[in-house]
Amino acid sequence: xxxxxxxxxxxxxxxxxxxxxxxxxxxxxxxxxxxxxxxxxxxxxxxxxxxxxxxxxxxxxxxxxxxxxxxxxxxxxxxxxxxxxxxxxxxxxxxxxxxxxxxxxxxxxxxxxxxxxxxxxxxxxxxxxxxxxxxxxxxxxxxxxxxxxxxxxxxxxxxxxxxxxxxxxxxxxxxxxxxx
Length: 180
Description:
The chain is α+β, with helices and mostly antiparallel strands. The protein has one domain (4-178): Alpha-Beta Barrel (Serine Protease, Human Cytomegalovirus Protease, Chain A), CATH 3.20.16. It is built from three helices and nine strands. The chain has helices at residues 45-54, 94-105, 158-178, and strands at 4-9, 15-16, 21-28, 38-39, 59-62, 65-78, 82-89, 110-122, 128-141. Strands 1, 2, 3, 4, 5, 6, 7, 8 and 9 form a nine-stranded mixed sheet that branches. A hairpin with a 4-residue loop joins strand 2 (15-16) and strand 3 (21-28). The chain is globular and about 50 Å long. The two termini are 29 Å apart. One of its GO terms (molecular function) is peptidase activity.
């Protein structure tokens, strides 16, 4: 089984409350990411139903490291926009405290899904349209892949926005350098 990852920045719905609750979209439907993949609405439905049936949950990890769970996703659901998540960072764990501080400061502004593709098709533009995914985890990450979504934290200072813009410019430059 190959685990794939897709990254997305938190959108303006993200909030970090004093009790370390976070919420936002981990994936958006119909938007191509930097790899050209598009997640189709309904792609997570079977996976979420299977997890519920089996009494399992989507894991909250730090930077896709399975050795570093940092919290619990209390709600993971599809809506008309994408995959919405709400959870709690565990501040009794060092990385949980660190994640809460980094999000609040604007230093971490991304979510990434870890999944296995079960079904995909190519569209007329040659993009892979992901129609069914087996969702394993949603991680807090430094570099998101879907740049159209932006972070919105409890406090959104000018400096934090500038840092995110700089990070986006660095990601774009890195990708340009990697192209043949």
